[in-house]
Structures are given as C-alpha cells and as structure tokens.
Amino acid sequence: MGSPEYVTAEADTDAVPRTSRVTFWRDHVTQNHGRLEFGFRDADRFTGGTRVQRQGDLQLVDFWSAAIAYERLPGGYDADGHDGLRILLPTSGSINVVGRDGHSRIGPGTAAAVSMRLGFRLEQDEYARALILSCPVRLWAAPVSSGLVRWELGHGAGAVFRTMLREASSQALTLDRSSFASIVESAVGLLSRGAASTEDDVLLQARAVARQYCDDAGFGPSELARRLGWSLRSVQYGLRRASTSPASVIREIRLERAASRLRHPDWAARTVSSVAHASGFGSLSAFNAAFRARYGRTPVEYRGRAVSRSLTGDVRAGHAEMPRRSSGA
C-alpha cells in the first residue's frame, strides 16, 4: 500500500456566519489537534484562519486568530490517542506556553514544544500568528519529561529549523508528499539533535539555507557560508567529510527546484529557459547539461514524461521520477 497523500487545505471563520464561528473553530482545531478545551476571550468577535499541510502523521499548520486559550488535559490521550509533540513557532504576537512543570512566553525568534500525552495550556495574544508542527513520537527520541521544551532560533540549528519550516509553509502548493516529508523530518531531526556536530548535520543545514536562497543566480559558496555564520573553509571542510561541496549542494538544490517546477501544473506554460533562470541557473546550456546528468533526460523530455504520468494520476499520487545518484563534489 502506498504512502498517504500530501494534502493542503485552508479554513477561515469569515467563510461562516458570525454565530457559527466559535463552533466552526472548535471543530476545525479538534480535527487537526485532537481533544482540547477552548477559552475564547471574546466569542462574539472571534476570527481566525488556518492553512493546513498534512502527509500521514506529519502536519504543519499556519494559523492566525484573535485571542484564545487552549488546554490539553493529561487524559486527552486516552480519548483520541494523540501522543506526539506540538512544536510552536510564532511569526507574530506571542503565546504563553504552560507545561506540566514550567512555563515560557514565546514570540518570533523562539519556539517551544509541548507534549500531547502530558498536557499543556496555550494562552495566545490578540491576533497572534504561528506555525504549529505535529511531531510524531517516532521522530523525537528524547523524552519531554517536563511537558515543555524551549529553543532560541537566532542561530545554529534553531535558525535552520525556522528556515526549513517557513520554507515548507511558503511552498505549500508546490510541494509533493516526498518533499514535504523530507523537509519536516529533516527539520525535526536537526532540532532534536541540537547544534551541528556531524557531517550529516552540516549538510542538512547547508541544504536548508540553499533552499531559501538558491533561486538567486548570485547565490554561491561564499554567500552560503555567510548565511550559515561560518567561514567558507569551515563549510568546505564539513561538506568534504560528507562527500560533497558547497557548489554541489547549491547545484543539487537548484536542480531539485527546477525538476519540481517542470512537474507542477502551475509552471506548465513557462518555457524551460524560464524555469532554469527562475531556479538560479544563469546559463541554459549549463542547466540542460546538469539536468541531464542528474536525471538522465533533458528538461523537455522530463517534463513530457511528467505530463504523461499525470494523465494516469502518478504525479498527483507523488510518484515523482527519482534522480540519478550524484557522484558528490
């Protein structure tokens, strides 16, 4: 049986009558996050909205709303079976997060994780906005004994985690199930391990930064190092131990981005040259050569194959053509 579909959906209280908004919001949030208690500061004037991305047990919700409090009682797990974490990353406003043995107020630049099994309380300011990642237990080996974990996201692994989640959210409509799962699982793995200490962590952080800036044709190894906060020599050394190089990482991300665009219906009217330049390639001939070496087909052939597969539902189901294995740096 295949992997679960990647789906996106949007909801907004403006789409329902004012008298139904509180019920609508309760039902919608419960569907996404399990059993919760709700405390509306002003139920008559409440507004809120979400954009949900989901693939199997992975879920990322971009939400915004008027002031509200949510409480997850410890017995909630017995009712709905949700036992993972909820990782909150505010993008505006602030949220007071209360775990079993502590509390913390978080805003932009910070994040916190709470346990669905142990319970928590969230008290949200007026018109706060945040990303909430549902993290299954299988991705988080470290115990959350206090019911609350907090991170600063200004540098290191935290900064890359923030970049990766924002990327996943901003590209919601262009991702497929494999790319969404890859970004989310990599981001969680990086955050749970902390600072980069292995070759894989250095590569993960480099790829995350490259994904954010690779559409700029001027983005190169020196800028990658600057964005990571390291010297170019340090980045080269770390990636060499992972059998690659800064230039190779950037090229790979650009090729992945171009391949995704060639498959996506929203880019069907764009020429191959336009896709290449939009994906950070300054030369069409260099793009064609690199693409063929990576995927075994020219961009035109690759797009034609993707179109034919879409007629049978394969692309929609996430059966994107796999690239050839890279030889490294």
Protein described:
There is one protein chain. The protein is α+β, with helices and mostly antiparallel strands. The chain has two domains: 6-153, Jelly Rolls (Sandwich), CATH 2.60.120; 196-310, Homeodomain-like (Arc Repressor Mutant, subunit A, Orthogonal Bundle). It has eleven helices and twelve strands. The strands form two sheets. The chain has a seven-stranded antiparallel beta sheet with strand order 1-3-4-11-6-9-12, with helices on both faces. The protein has a five-stranded antiparallel beta sheet with strand order 2-5-10-7-8, with no helix packed on it. A hairpin with a 2-residue loop joins strand 3 and strand 4 (58-65). Helix 5 (199-213) crosses helix 6 (221-228). The longest helix is centred in the C-terminal third of the chain and has 18 residues, at 246-263.
Q: Main sheet?
A: 7 strands, antiparallel
Helix fraction bin: 25-40%
C-alpha geometry? globular
- The name of the CATH topology of the largest domain is Jelly Rolls
Say how many strands there are. 12
The total of helices stands at 11
CATH class division of the largest domain: Mainly Beta
Kindly state the mean pLDDT as a whole number? 85
Strand composition percent:
15-25%
